[in-house]
Structures are given as C-alpha cells and as structure tokens.
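Appendix B. One record, verbatim.
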Amino acid sequence: MSARIALALIWLARLLPLRALALVGDALGLVLYRLGRHRRRVALANLALCFPQRPPHERERIARRHFMALARSVLERGILWWSSAAAVRRLVRIEGEEHWRAVAHRPIIVLAPHFVGCEMGGIRLHLDHVMVTMYSKQPNAVLDAMLLHGRTRFNDGHAYSRQDGVRPIVKALRSGLPLFYLPDMDLGARDAVFVPFFGVPAATVTALSRLAAISGAAVLPCVTRQLPGGAGYVARLYPAWVDYPGTDLAADARRMNAFIEARVREMPEQYYWVHKRFKTRPPGATKRFYEG
C-alpha cells in the first residue's frame, strides 16, 4: 500500500466516532500482528529480554495488545493531522499542568518516552505552548512531509531533524522555547553510553543531560497513556527532576532508563516494542537479539 493511499484511509478514518475508530484500530492491529512477522519477532524478542520471568503466552498477549494499541494510535493521528484544535483537545487531556507552571521561568525539556501515545501528547502540548521538537527524517517523502506538518501545524511549532544536529535546538532552548524530546531509542553507539534497561545493557543517548546542562533547562517528564474503549488519551506531566543533570553522563542515563522502566511496568502493552532497542551491543558482546 502506497503512503498516499494509507494517508487517505487515515484521513477518512478520523471521521468515525472515537469508539468506532478504536474498534477498527484494534482489528487492524490483530491483522498486522498476524501478517507483520518481522516486527512481531522484534517485539517478542524485546519482551523476552525485558520480562524473562513472564511465561511466553503472557508475553505474546502483551505483544498482540501492543499491535492493537499501535494501530489504533496510527489511525487516530488523522485527528492530529487534519482535525480542528478543539477535536485534538477532546482527544487528549493533560494532567499535571502545575508541574509545568512550577518551572515556566526556565527553559524546559519535555522528556517523552516512546509510548504509542507520545505523538498525541506532543501535539496536544503544542496547542498551549510554542515548542520545538526533533524528528527523524523518513525515507518516504510523502510520509516525512505529513509527520512534519503534524508536528508544526499548531501555534507556530518548529521541528528539526536529527540530521540538523543540536545547534538549532540549543539556540531555541536558550531563547526560551520548550523542547519536546524523545531520547529513548537505539541510535547507535555514537554519543551513547551502555546502561541497563530492564537489566540489559542498552545504547542510551546522553543528549538529554548534555542539553539540560548547556541550556540550564528543567527536565519535565511527560507520559501519554492511551485509554480503553475510544476514550482518548491522557498526557501526564511529572514533577521536574531535581539535581539533574549530574556530573556523570552514565548516571544520568541510568536515571532516565529507570524512570521509563517504571512507566513501562504500569502499561507494558503501550511501550514501543517494535523498535530494536537492543540492536547496538557493547564492545566485545557477540550475542545478537534480532537475528533468525
């Protein structure tokens, strides 16, 4: 299916009531779980690494529910990309806004882990604040343009690709613009340290603590939860981290991973398991987790 046809279907799907849209998303997710052998294998490998104490049938259940939640979130992005600001506000509710106000006098980095609803939380925050965000350029030009449009359509938002480097991000932070930042992906060994994620050494970028140190920004975690039955999403803001960044990049990275771990345990089906989080291995490691 071409990107244009897929986007046209997402555009049409957004016209459905939220409950019906959720049911369609769940059904689509089950189909993709059956047909998407490669990503299913990645998700199951990740779950086996992170939850070795759980029996295989339980990890399979989490993986199926993850595909359902992910497919639903993709369909619901049509609301983010084409519907009104009022529709986006109905779709996503914010909790913990007092934590934002407590550090509003400083630059702010919103730490947004890769849960299926993170895009919803980011665009919802853009409705209330002029913000900047980073994104990875997509190989498909149509999809890349759509993602960029979605992240910048409200409140004069700004988006910079990772290929642009950190200089424009630092400049924006120093000018007082908040940054919506998703730092929990395996981007290779460069500018990363190997620290545990669910007990497994994971290549973890250190940009969060470095950006906070350079700009003097407060780090404000935000986790967006997908609600059942088409009830939308809740973007929860947590208190800004105290004594962050520290003097040790590895300790800062461990702190971030530990926070994300705790949130994953609260809703394991909603973390982004189809990403190869443990692809990059520490020096000397021979075992590969996603082969075969």
